[in-house]
Amino acid sequence: MNDLLEGFELYEKQRVSPGAPPFITVQARGVFSLNPSAYKALGEPQFVELLYSTEKSAIAIRTVTTETLTSYQVRSTNHGGAFNIAGKAFMTYHQITIPVSRRYTPQYAADGIIIMSMNDPFVELHPTRGQSDSLATKAPPNVGEVDSE
Q1: Could you give the CA distance from residue 38 to residue 113 in angstroms, rounded to a whole number?
Q2: Is residue 139 very low, low, confident or very high in pLDDT (cuts 50, 70, 90)?
């Protein structure tokens, strides 16, 4: 029986893939969501500041050591699987609108600073809620089944 599982690795909950690159998802409603690698690049802060360059069309996230009038609290979600920053007011002030959530790979992510350009390539993330039941319950083909044609 143990031979059946030879070569398999047990998945440990909340473990990040080794060497996972930092990602930032900018949600359509203005929330910045950082994966664990991006959060670590910031130094795992409790508070950050958001900066914007109109000239470069770029957003910077900078770690601050204490809460200030210009800081945003970083909130953990999914037991450390993602870290959110409420940036709706920031996005509104700078007139940054996006129709659907977008995932960016930052240009720079180290030393307590992350910089991402809104002009860089991104992946659109479409919501999965509201899909039809037929799509959500579609079964995969049976493994080892031979096509009779």
Answers
A1: 9
A2: very low
Partner residues linked to 77 by β-bridges: 82
28 CB-near residues (< 8 Å, 6+ apart): 98, 99, 100, 101
- Nearest alpha-carbon partner for 61 in 75, 76, 71, 50: 50
Q: DSSP letter string over 67-78?
A: --TTEEEEEEEG
Torsion angle, CA of 66/67/73/76, rounded to 10 degrees? Answer: 40
Could you count the other beta carbons within 10 Å of the beta carbon of residue 63? Answer: 19
pLDDT tens, position by position, 87-116: 999 999 999 999 999 999 999 999 999 999
Whole-structure pTM value: 0.73
Distance CA(36)–CA(77), nearest Å, equals 11
In whole angstroms, give the CA distance from residue 34 to residue 24: 5
C-beta of residue 75 within 8 angstroms of C-beta of residue 83: yes
